[in-house]
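fold description:
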Amino acid sequence: MSQQFDVVVIGAGPGGYVAAIRAAQLGFNTACIDAFVGKSGKPSLGGTCLNVGCIPSKALLQSSENFHAIAHDFAEHGISVEGAKFDAAKMIARKDGIVDKLTAGIGFLFKKNKVTSLHGLGSLKGRSGEKWQLEVKNGDTVDAIEATHVIVATGSSVRQLPGVTIDNVTVLDNEGALNVDAVPARLGVIGAGVIGLEMGSVWKRVGADVTILEAMPTFLAAADQQIAKEAFKTLTKNTGLDIKLGVKIGEIKNLGDKVSVAYEVGGEATVAEFDKLIVSIGRVPNTSGLGADAVGLQLDERGFVVVDDNCHTNLPNVWAIGDVVRGPMLAHKASEEGVAVAERIAGQKPHVDFNVIPWVIYTSPEIAWVGKTEEQLKAAGIEYKKGSSGFAANGRALGLGQAQGTVKILACAKTDRILGLHMIGPMVSELVTEGVVSMEFKAASEDLARIIHAHPSLSEVVHEAALAVDKRALHG
């Protein structure tokens, strides 16, 4: 007889594992199916984010920043370091240790919350009465289970560049980029998105010559362009990334120990050779093998599972969350959707506001934003006012030796309600939450301006920007 569950989640990434835990907390007999296998060859929970995405990339970024600081920044603190050496293999090993610790932690949380963890590829097979039939395939072993509710959280995978084979030796995707065990002399990156900029920054700081090729004519088109332009200047001038925009990619040849890339910029053709090439041109939803056709699960023209505002699909008691549905491909968005769906199954009415989701790029300095950009407000015909302040005069930033960057606040010209917060600078991945909380509580820029901020702290720049909205900045 098939195992029976109240809720079965397909996928154990940030959306899936959180959905499973929340469903179990609400009293449902819950199982989570996941097929990911880690570097050790063993099952590894956490999906792309924990295994080959958000978490390992941040570990490498920190290692590279430490090495760069020793080589370039410590002298002004009166600290002299001679003969500093960089060990890429040890950096990778440290990253792997962090990944192992966190993925094992999910297994602990599953046991603590009595979530049944099933390893294998999960797929929908049909429906009998009020129960969905599912299959879990692990090699030659196939198990059948039943569920009243199914949550699809299968995530996304790397978008392939036509005619290019990823071997993760010379031509790399995000997983391969996280496992380079020696510094490449010349690194090419196709795509100036989050992955391209972060991985390019890592290897540039430890000695690689990095060229980033971006098809779009605009740098970070999704970001506020004042911040994007400052980021471009900083990443090219200070970090030393060679970022080319409006690039038309031609033939790519994997020559074994190197790769050649033909490309064109402004009508000028070039052929460049790199020791490694990272391809990071976006991600596509994972629906292959899910059994969508067999059960009539509706997908859109791009392969995303079609859902309503509550993440419910066209099938009864089948839900979908995270990268496999509409909206930004962000781990924290997936997690919140997972919690919301579990609570909806329990009859609750949770709140998720897609307009107040923070975005972060973990370069140095970091880039973060929430809400509308100035370009979006202009396009929508919304009257607004703005205030900005820089880190250059901030005592905490100067003490850290990271006094670069800007904070900008956009507010409604009529109501003063905060519409967007955009920033580049030290630790803005943490500071952006001040904007998220303010916007969730429908705060005005005056509210933020009248809140006491600790001195000295980086958050004072946010305070100063809020004051500047009303043209009463005190330090600018």
